[in-house]
# Entry
Amino acid sequence: MILFDHITKSFDNKPILNDIELAIEQGELFTFLGPSGCGKTTLLRILAGLESPDQGRVWVDGHDITSIPPEKREISMVFQHYALFPNMNVEKNVAYGLKVRRISRDVIMERTKSLLNLVGMTGFEKRDISQLSGGEQQRIALVRALAVSPKVLLLDEPLSNLDANMRDRMRREIRALQKEVGITTIFVTHDQQEAMTMSDRIAVFHQGRLVQAGHPMHIYNEPVNEFVARFIGESNLVSCQVFPEWFSGVKEMKACIRPNALHIGGRGQVEAQIKVVEFTGSTVMYDCISRQQTIKVSVEHIQGMKPRETGEKVWLSVKDGAVHGLQVNS
Amino acid sequence: MNRDKVIKSLVYTLLFYLVAVFVVFPIGNTIWRSLQYDGSGFSFHWYVHFFSTPTNLMALRNTITVGIFTVAACLVVGVSMAFYTSYFKTPFQRLTHMVMLSAVMLPGVMIVIAFIQLYAEMGIINHLLQTAFHLVNPPLRFSGFWGILFVHSFTQYIYFYINTKIAIAFIDYSLVESARNLGASRWQVFKDVLLPHLAPALVTSALMTFATGVSSFSAPYLIGRGYRMMSTQILHSKMNNQMSMAAAQVTLLMVLVFMTMGLYSYYNHQSFQSRTTKTKKFRRVRVRHPVARGTMHLVAGIITALIMVPIVGVMILSFADSSRWMTEIIPSEFGLQNYRRILAQPRVLDPIINSLKMSLQAGLMATAIGAVSAFLVLRNKGMVSRWLHFLVLLPMAIPASTLGVNMILAFNRRQWFLFNQSLIGTYWILPITYVLAGITIASKSIYSAFENFNREYEQASRNLGATRTQTFIHVFMPMVSAGIISAFSLVVMRSLGEYTISALLYGVHNRPVSIAMVNALHDYDIGISMAYGGIVIFIGMVILGVITLLDPNYK
# Structure
């Protein structure tokens, strides 16, 4: 188990991490999610030993590793831009961690071969790094990190340099590989969709603080505050005055309603006018205006069905149990 | 204090000691000497004397004139050839580029001597032209101002050439495309897109060329024929043992070059900023009009030939039998006799061995200091590092003749901070001064290599279990070695044929090849002089090959 015990870190007097306390279980694929500059990569680098915390300790399997140098931590990292050594070919990159551990040549050869086979890159041994595509580099970086059989695998936004199709494919490959190897993995991303599809659990960071941690579905359905609600998926944050029959008397609350939790048409609860219609393929997204507020509604697109027109007046209603109350300014 | 901090403090102390003793002290000492008169304390006597002597004023005026004309001439040669090898689609670009780079590799003095052999009154080309056209007098007057300017044009164009070439490589081609798309003509694209992009590179090149032009020594000394410049006046004062006057002249020349270099660093910063927005690679332009294309090839051919002729001339003449040659216009007997003489007589061979030894020592020292200081400056962003960086780059603003006089004035007596030793007259004065002359170029090359090293590689290596030492050996060194080898090679090459510093500081223990070459020329032993040149060219070509392979700035 990994434990971040009240970690605090600043750079040039600018606070980056503020009293982070978090436990990650053995074998989990855990994601640090948040916008750029929220401190998620710094926390990952503290675990790798590439940064030192100003305060707090880091524990792995009951051992305090805070002062242990990076090369002795048995924690491997896949860097955002992969950091594959350009002066070595594919084989040498994968074998590097084993070579510096003075493992015998035969064992290195065998392990390198099996790892390249694992990611479908047999035959690429002698290739230069510059000859590989983004996805191939990503796979080599991944097996280079796995070659040394680390206790923990860290992935620092490894998919951010890939195109949408490749990202989708690699996401599935990483998840499958992680399950096959069974290694505790921490994944850093700012892409909520990536976090939701891959993770066992997610921790959401904002301005150096850990805002919420939990199962992806739990975070999506029950965000603790406005930031999480807005950051994880699309949401309508509606002031209580708009729907007084639901929250009468609780004026400081906001209601979080996901666009797919709203029904359009028929005789609903709120009258609105369609301002924007966006066809996304599987859904049609409507921006509706009601009492000077924009409400997003997502409707499944059924082939042959004509979407509603801009300017059309409609009724909106909320599906049962789909409203989540939030503290204002929390 | 932990071990790392102790080592770091010791390294900083050593580097600051070295720059304080060999850079700051000699400059300060020279300025101090120029402000002393007859033991009466602080005085402007030598400056008043300088500005009231017509020959000195003429030297100052001539120096600035040569500087300005050198800039203009080198702009034409350097920029046109940079466009020829980078902007236009032309044949033999790599070969032409190698020829253009020869100015970096070959010692200025050697090219001056080659020019003398070819274009001087008794030179081969002058002789040939005179005979061919049945002229009473030789047609070319290769001396004085125009002689100096001719030599400068074909030896000091390198800043314009390299900087323009780099700027062209960094042109964002999408800007050209968008200008054309908005209706701009080719001329408007050149005026509104290319020229503003090239301007910082041209300004910095002009300033660097001005600094080297006003500091030039070997051309005015060997072919000036009474055309006085500040550098030759300094030597004149030194010869007459007027060291305080020399100190004042040196200070004035330093002020001139410092001002130029101050402007250079300001514009260089701007130039760097304009290079950071590369988005689309530049595509070479094909000249379609046959007349324009023919003119372009003709001009480039003439410039390339004028650069090649002295090199080829030295190589051919080094095989000529000089005993017969004095009676012929063009040597007719060729053989290895000059090289054999060099190898057979230890007295003749010694200058080559001395120069090789000293230039290798200078290369090693400058590379070591450059590497350590670049490492510290990049890893520690504090005030101390910034000062170290500034002081290591300071010698760039000191002309060679000035450096030589500074060293004489600073180390012609025992100094307590040098363990009560005097350096003048010893073997080490030349290698140390070569280090000072080469430290800036070494530091810049290494700094650039280190700066381009992505620290994520180091972190990835440590993360994979490698120790600091393993990371240094397997990851850091292989990635920065090109910059280090390039820095070492450049310093070795510059020191190998260095003349100005050598002329001021050499002694019996360290007579270098450049001095031996000039002395042989003065003794009419032209074959030996050319064979010395041939050896230096050979070494230079090997080094040029290494650098063009390794250093992206010269590729």
About this structure: Residues 54-87 of chain B form the longest helix (34 residues). The two ends of chain B are 45 Å apart (CA to CA). Chain B touches chain A at residues 454, 456-457, 459-467, 470, 474-475, 478-479 (CB under 8 Å).
